């Protein structure tokens, strides 16, 4: 990379040098915290630094910034902060499906925040504060970095949209909680959020069994530093034990605990059709039987027979695939829509030719396609600019109206309560 392709921004964090192609500036892998130990809480960076942000470093806990090349301090451009998914197990601050180039062309600044995953980010210890997770706290510090520094990149710190997908959507909702919210964003987008069905405390015994030693901060730190392969293999066994669910992540979601702010909730109709276990079961014609066998274990509280009929009415060939997606994601979308105190708009992504799968909406929404304009893209651009969606908000009193957007044909229509089958299956009475 030649010198003329470099660009430097001076901000409270120091001098950040990135790269530019004359249209778009990219600042890769900017450190935003100090992590004293793998299982310790991160700390805010306080010293000013010279940061080489010309190269993407995927193994670091960092953030990236993408801006229009003509963005300057006091340009006051809207900011989208993206938190990646990955089952709380993988992913970094360089998710190419959510590249910020199209946002930059639409005069929006994009920040990707990376955070600790797996046990380093989401194991809990006896002295942790309630509802505190290191991975989520990492994102909190990243948002605080944005508040202190984004104005120097041309962004408006009072006009930040927090957007997360899958596990990242869960993080976004958690950061909206009144006990976590610190004013670092004005509105949020939660795309297919997911919460484990059991807390880490209830699963600690299985982790202790595969580790063969106590689950303490000191012991896990020792393993991470001296025997990382032992810790990696133990985690693989641990997640296998909880294969019908996510092994890690925050639990105890209550939408009523969230702050009152505009929220856009989305899901894909066929979330996890391609999950290998479910695909295999359905392909062999065992879907109906497995749904009957596993529905209660996977969180269905209402009538299993009613749920199965509704699932087969949508797609008789994939009942198990539908149960996996409904249990992992769509039930939480439905619950959040009914419980959050602020205005909420609901979107369901579908497809006319094949299933609408988990993650399929990311690239169209960020404009990372060759198809040109797409209603998913228009939706993000408008929402980031503070434009209220042009369909009714999601309200049980008026019909729970939902915007349906087809990913492959880019058609749009208004649908009435498409999550009813999920709501009735997963929220009725005790198991």
From TrEMBL:
<feature type="domain" description="Carboxylesterase type B">
    <location>
        <begin position="59"/>
        <end position="193"/>
    </location>
</feature>
<dbReference type="InterPro" id="IPR002018">
    <property type="entry name" value="CarbesteraseB"/>
</dbReference>
<protein>
    <recommendedName>
        <fullName>Carboxylic ester hydrolase</fullName>
        <ecNumber>3.1.1.-</ecNumber>
    </recommendedName>
</protein>
<comment type="similarity">
    <text>Belongs to the type-B carboxylesterase/lipase family.</text>
</comment>
<keyword id="KW-0378">Hydrolase</keyword>
<dbReference type="GO" id="GO:0016787">
    <property type="term" value="F:hydrolase activity"/>
</dbReference>
<dbReference type="InterPro" id="IPR019826">
    <property type="entry name" value="Carboxylesterase_B_AS"/>
</dbReference>
<dbReference type="Pfam" id="PF00135">
    <property type="entry name" value="COesterase"/>
</dbReference>
<dbReference type="InterPro" id="IPR029058">
    <property type="entry name" value="AB_hydrolase_fold"/>
</dbReference>
């Amino acid at each position: 990379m030649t010198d003329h392709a470099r660009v430097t921004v001076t901000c409270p964090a120091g001098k950040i040098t990135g790269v530019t192609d004359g249209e778009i500036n990219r600042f890769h892998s900017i450190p935003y915290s100090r992590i004293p130990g793998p299982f310790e809480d991160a700390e805010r960076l306080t010293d000013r630094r010279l940061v080489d942000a010309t190269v993407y470093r995927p193994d670091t806990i960092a953030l990236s910034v993408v801006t229009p090349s003509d963005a300057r301090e006091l340009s006051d451009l809207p900011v989208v902060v993206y938190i990646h998914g990955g089952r709380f197990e993988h992913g970094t601050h360089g998710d190419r499906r959510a590249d910020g180039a199209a946002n930059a062309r639409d005069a929006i600044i994009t920040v990707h925040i990376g955070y600790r995953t797996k046990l380093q980010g989401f194991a809990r210890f006896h002295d942790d504060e309630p509802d505190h997770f290191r991975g989520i706290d990492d994102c909190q510090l990243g948002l605080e970095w944005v508040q202190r520094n984004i104005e120097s990149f041309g962004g408006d710190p009072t006009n930040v949209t927090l957007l997360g997908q899958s596990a990242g959507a869960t993080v976004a909702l958690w950061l909206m909680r009144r006990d976590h919210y610190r004013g670092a964003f004005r509105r949020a987008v939660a795309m297919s959020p997911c919460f484990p069905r059991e807390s880490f405390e209830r699963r600690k015994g299985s982790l202790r069994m595969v580790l063969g030693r106590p689950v303490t901060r000191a012991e896990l730190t020792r393993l991470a530093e001296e025997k990382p392969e032992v810790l990696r293999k133990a985690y693989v066994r641990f997640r296998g034990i909880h294969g019908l669910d996510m092994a890690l992540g925050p639990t105890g979601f209550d939408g009523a605990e969230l702050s009152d702010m505009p929220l856009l909730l989305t899901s894909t109709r066929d979330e996890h059709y391609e999950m290998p276990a479910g695909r295999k079961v359905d392909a062999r014609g065992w879907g109906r039987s497995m749904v009957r066998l596993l529905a209660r274990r996977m969180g269905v509280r209402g009538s299993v027979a009613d749920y199965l009929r509704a699932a087969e009415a949508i797609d008789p060939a994939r009942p198990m695939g539908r149960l996996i997606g409904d249990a992992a994601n769509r039930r939480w979308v439905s619950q959040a829509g009914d419980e959050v105190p602020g205005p909420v708009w609901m979107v369901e992504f579908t497809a006319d030719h094949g299933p609408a799968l988990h993650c399929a909406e990311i690239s169209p929404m960020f404009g990372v396609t060759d198809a040109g304009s797409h209603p998913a893209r228009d939706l993000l651009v408008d929402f980031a600019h503070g434009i209220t969606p042009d369909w009714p908000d999601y309200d049980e009193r008026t019909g729970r109206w939902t915007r349906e957007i087809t990913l492959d044909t880019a058609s749009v229509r208004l649908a009435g309560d498409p999550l009813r089958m999920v709501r009735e299956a997963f929220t009725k009475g005790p198991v």
